Amino acid sequence: MVTSRCSLELIQKVLRAGIQTLVSLSSPTGLALQWARRHNLNLIHLPQHSAPRVYSPAMEIQA
Questions:
Q1: Is residue 61 in a domain?
Q2: Is 58 helix (H, G, I), strand (E, B) or coil?
Q3: Along the chain (63 residues), what's the average pLDDT of each consecutive run of 10 residues?
Q4: For the chain, how far is it from start to end, CA to CA, in angstroms?
Q5: How many domains does the chain have?
Q6: By the 8 A CB rule, do 38 and 57 touch?
Q7: How far apart are CA 50 and CA 9, in angstroms?
């Protein structure tokens, strides 16, 4: 889980590390979403006052 901005740079680091799922308290940028989808990275955004948002190419993940 990360609390910093969910940017393209963070997505690239996660992919290089071989991590398959990233959970973030901050919303992802549009470019970060594109890269996550392109590279089959599960991305979960946990907003402070609403339901989790799952951005995933593998939609079998349940939030």
A1: no
A2: coil
A3: 85 96 94 94 93 78 52
A4: 15
A5: 1
A6: no
A7: 26
Q: How far apart are CA 12 and CA 51, in angstroms?
A: 26
Nearest to 38 by CA among 55, 62, 63: 55
pLDDT at 4: 78
Q: What are phi and psi of 31, to 5 degrees?
A: -65, -35
Report the predicted TM-score, pTM, of the whole model to 2 decimal places.
0.80
Beta bridge partners of 55: 43
Within a domain: residue 39?
yes
DSSP 18-54: T--EEEESSPBPHHHHHHHHHTT-EEEE--SSS--EE
Domain residues for the domain of 18 are 8-55
